[in-house]
Design a protein that fits this description.
The chain is mostly helical. The chain has 2 domains: 2-127 and 216-343, no CATH class; 129-211 and 346-422, no CATH class. It has helices spanning 2-18, 28-36, 42-68, 73-86, 93-121, 135-140, 144-152, 155-178, 192-210, 221-224, 226-234, 236-251, 259-266, 270-295, 305-312, 316-332, 334-343, 345-377, 381-395, 402-422, and strands at 71-72, 182-183, 186-187, 255-256. The strands form 2 sheets. The protein has a two-stranded parallel ribbon. A two-stranded antiparallel ribbon has the order 2-3. A hairpin with a 2-residue loop joins strand 2 (182-183) and strand 3. The mean pLDDT is 83.
Length: 429
């Protein structure tokens, strides 16, 4: 069943990209829109997709997938973006995209099992220390609403949001330690990071909904892009299929939608992972909705609520059904969401700030996590390598995206440590 889910997700996602219906990479959606409008050739579109996504697949998606033994959705859907957009959109190109996309999904799953077996045979099994890469991400992620507020409104409001979120987190810790909340004699523990995240999001959307456009006028997104919204709705059956598949695969704990929930799942905290996924989904609605309405190109994971469905559903078949329904409602409500974003331009404008804030925080967290993992693999040498790797990458103009430096560096340290141990130059206690 696991293999069927992953293969079908790869095949369907590649077809959606090939037909210009949906792509996972947020930055690609406007570019695919340019191609649909005839201003960008297919070859240029394919090369652009490769340039934008390949580094993230290798440096971001796959390292997380290896460290947690759970597929990070980026590793499969960024790859299918490339496969679908490189393949010609014709009677043979689309079937080829489906086959290659399915094989790619199979390769990820099969390769994951092979990687685990390979690591067990190495002189230095660095698979377990690699789990430290994602540890800081879970804790630091709660600060992203404060950063988004500072970027969009003011540093003063951002600091206030940060302080309130930090206080809420510590209050949740106090409540947990005191055992104040109980149901039927069982003490209920609050997720402190989740509570801080919710507090920050309340501040972010509170400020956003108070912001009005400078001239007091509203731009009717739904009317301006009505044809693009119609084209998305026309393909709702495709979205229901892939939404159902991804929700089911998530319920089977085969995959996760972001590094936060993936790290929590790796620790066995499925409920906390669901809460983190829900917070992320709410934060991404303005970005996904705005780019979809403006380009006529949707995301194969929609607003990412299907991951929440998968994590909270009691079994895989309920996850499949509810996942299809949820993504159907998302598509049908796009026009209403556009009207809401018109009414509150601050919310619409917050989408890019939310994305930027998340990216910056994850960059820092992954660098710290990569350094900690590297030092756990090779004490002393790990910190030295990550610091030098980061600085040289910056001086070289960032051939590796910042977000990938920590995970890639940690993998490199693991490989180097094995080589040095095999040569007798290094001993690991």
């Amino acid at each position: 069943m696991e293999l069927v889910f992953v293969v079908l997700i790869g095949a369907v996602a590649a077809v959606l990209a090939n037909l210009n219906i949906a792509v996972f990479n947020d930055g690609l959606r406007p570019i695919v829109g340019e191609h649909i409008e005839g201003r960008l050739k297919r070859r240029e579109l394919g090369l652009t997709a490769f340039a934008m996504s390949f580094g993230l697949v290798i440096g971001f998606g796959i390292p997380f997938t290896i460290t947690a033994s759970i597929i990070l959705i980026h590793s499969i859907l960024l790859g299918t973006d490339i496969i679908g957009l490189i393949a010609p959109k014709n009677k043979w190109g689309t079937p080829v995209a489906a086959v290659v996309g399915g094989l790619y999904g199979w390769g990820l799953l099969a390769g994951l099992e092979g990687f685990v077996a390979l690591f067990e045979k190495l002189p230095v099994n660095f698979l377990e220390p690699m789990g430290a890469v994602g540890t800081p991400v879970v804790v630091t992620f709660m600060a992203f609403p404060a950063l988004a507020v500072a970027m969009q409104f003011s540093v003063k409001k951002g600091v206030l949001t940060f302080i309130v979120a930090a206080l809420v987190r510590q209050l949740a810790v106090f409540v947990n330690e005191s055992g104040f909340i109980s149901i039927g004699g069982n003490v209920i523990s609050l997720n402190q990071e989740g509570m801080a995240l919710i507090a920050g999001m309340i501040f972010l959307f509170g400020y956003a909904m108070r912001e009005k456009s400078e001239d007091g006028a509203s731009v009717d997104l739904a009317s301006i892009f009505s044809e693009k919204v119609k084209s998305i709705k026309k393909n709702v059956a495709f979205f229901m299929v892939i939404g159902a598949l991804i929700a089911g695969a998530t319920n089977l704990l085969l995959m996760a939608g972001d590094p936060i929930s993936l790290s929590l799942l790796a620790e066995g905290k499925q409920t906390d992972a669901g809460i983190a996924a829900a917070a992320r989904a709410i934060g991404f609605i303005p970005l996904v909705a705005s780019t979809a309405i403006a380009t006529g190109v949707y995301s194969p994971v929609g607003f990412t609520l299907i991951f929440v469905v998968g994590l909270f559903s009691p079994n895989v078949w309920i996850a499949v059904v509810v996942g299809a329904i949820v993504i159907f409602l998302e598509v049908m409500l796009l026009g209403s969401i556009a009207k809401f974003l018109d009414k509150y331009p601050g919310v619409r404008n917050s989408g890019e700030n939310i994305r930027s804030a998340m990216t910056r925080l994850i960059e820092v967290a992954l660098l710290i996590g990569g350094a900690n993992a590297s030092n756990a693999i090779a004490p002393g040498f790990g910190f030295f390598f990550i610091a030098g790797f980061y600085l040289l990458n910056e001086i070289a103009g960032r051939p590796i995206v910042r977000m990938a430096v920590g995970p890639v560096g940690a993998i490199a340290v693991g490989i180097i440590a094995n080589i040095l141990v095999a040569l007798g130059i290094m001993t690991i206690g």
